[in-house]
Amino acid sequence: LTSRLPNVGTTIFTVMSALAAEHKAVNLGQGFPDFACDSKLVDAVTSAMQAGHNQYPPMTGVPALRQAVSAKIAGLHTKTYQPDSEITITAGATQAIITAILAIVHPGDEVIVLEPCYDSYVPNIELAGGVVVRVPLTPGTFRPDFVKISAAITSKTRAILINTPHNPSATVWSRSEMLALQDLLAPTNILLISDEVYEHMVFDGQPHESASRFSGLAARAFVVSSFGKTFHVTGWKVGTVAAPAALTAEFRKVHQFNVFTVNTPVQHALAAYLGDPAPYVNLPAFYSAKRDLFRAGLASTRFKLLPSQGSYFQCVDISEVSDLNEADFCQWLTREVGVAAIPLSAFYGNGFDQRVVRFCFAKKDETLELALERLKKL
Ligand code: PMP
Ligand code: GLN
After folding, report:
1. What is the pLDDT tens value at each position of the chain, 378 positions in all?
2. Distance of alpha carbon 324 from alpha carbon 322, whole angstroms
3. Which residue of 57, 205, 284, 303 lies most exposed, with the fewest beta carbons within 10 A?
């Protein structure tokens, strides 16, 4: 069998979680919370099931949920997406992103990704027959370099993927960076896939600069989010795509044949739960407290802390702690120290090693404290 993805193995998140389980390590690798979601949300799913919402929903998503998502975006970003023609409910952001790519990328089209990037983007583009064009984020700071992005644009560039807040670096794009992207794309027909799954985890009073806030970006963008991140339910796999009607129509042509619909009771529950903004409005305070606890614990170690402006990740430079490369260090840390982390090299096509690893702090305080106790021995 000739592989469609000859360079792809099992994702690093699956590999590291399995290793963490095998060695009973504290799993700060794969990004997911180890605490319960709001019991009201669980009750809402039960109620939806008891109310008989157990058959296929509309292909595009339960209307009440599309309306609630539209209202939420309008409230936050003053951009109104039509629930019927511009919002689609997906099986998490993962399915949203691959569906958008399959919908717009023709064989031979170039798609720009900014490295390091989430590990599904490149295989998604390859499956669509697209040509991956990798542009590095600025080494050290992970900020977008518009000179390099501009230089990567050709007549074949079909789309660019961005991600803010950023996994793995925890940087958050500023307004001026979004404006620079808008200016760069203005004279082109390049489409934008804006992965905003960590939209509600932005710290220190900074806003989340969604692509939907910028008319020149919104007009060409698939804006992707995930309830898994926002409501601490990564296993529910429900996300959203907001895009102009013409793009949404193409998106839905693929969506109807790669997933068709997303589970019904959870959509009803999310629609009801979105009525109260407090759970997502409170997320920056909730997660920045965890970030601060984790950073304070690491301050006395030889790990060098990188900034964490958003997301639920904290990157650290390991060069004072170990001579191992990132991947070997993460293996060693999991097996010998009992804490799992993710090497940043997993987010680069060429395995670039800069001696930086990523910890996830979406954990109970006691979990973070146990991990810190172990890390402080290094
Ligand atoms: N994009 C990024 C940047 C992510 O970190 C994740 C979650 N790991 C996803 C997409 C996928 O989200 P979901 O779990 O909703 O499919
Ligand atoms: N997005 C999560 C992370 O970056 C993991 C999701 C996955 O396991 N695919 O850790």
Report:
1. 999 999 999 999 999 999 999 999 999 999 999 999 999 999 999 999 999 999 999 999 999 999 999 999 999 999 999 999 999 999 999 999 999 999 999 999 999 999 999 999 999 999 999 999 999 999 999 999 999 999 999 999 999 999 999 999 999 999 999 999 999 999 999 999 999 999 999 999 999 999 999 999 999 999 999 999 999 999 999 999 999 999 999 999 999 999 999 999 999 999 999 999 999 999 999 999 999 999 999 999 999 999 999 999 999 999 999 999 999 999 999 999 999 999 999 999 999 999 999 999 999 999 999 999 999 999
2. 5
3. 205
Is the CB of residue 18 below 6 angstroms from any atom belonging to ligand 2? no
- Domain termination site, one of 235, 255, 276: 276
Question: Do 272 and 342 belong to one domain?
Answer: no
Q: Residue 120: CB within 6 Å of ligand 2?
A: no
Q: Among 14, 15, 30, which is best to mutate for testing ligand 2, by the most ligand atoms less than 8 A from CB? A: 30
Q: Are residues 342 and 227 in the same domain?
A: no
Distance, in Å, from the CA atom of 287 to the CA atom of 282, rounded to the nearest integer, reads 9
The domain containing residue 168 runs over which residues?
56-276
| Residue type for position 268 | H
In a domain, 46, yes or no: no
Distance, CA of 347 to CA of 315 (rounded, Å)? 13
Q: Supply the ipTM of this predicted assembly.
A: 0.97
CB 26 within 8 A of CB 339: yes
Pair 25, 94 in one domain? no
Q: How far is the CA of 72 from the centre of ligand 2 (A)?
A: 25
CA 360 to chain centre: 13
The total number of structural domains in the chain stands at 2
Task: Please report which ligand is nearest the Cα atom of 342.
Answer: 2
Query: Quick one: DSSP state of residue 29?
Result: S
Counting from 1 in the atom list of ligand 1, the atom nearest the Cα of 167 is: 3
Based on the fold, state whether residues 194 and 296 are members of the same structural domain: no
Ligand 2 centre to CA of 51 (Å) is 33
Q: Residue 204: inside a domain, yes or no? A: yes
- CATH assignment of the domain containing 272: 3.40.640.10
SS3 277: coil
**Ligand 1 binding pocket mutation candidate from 119, 137, 197, 259 (most atoms within 8 A of CB):** 197
| Nearest alpha carbon to residue 97 among 121, 122, 75 | 121
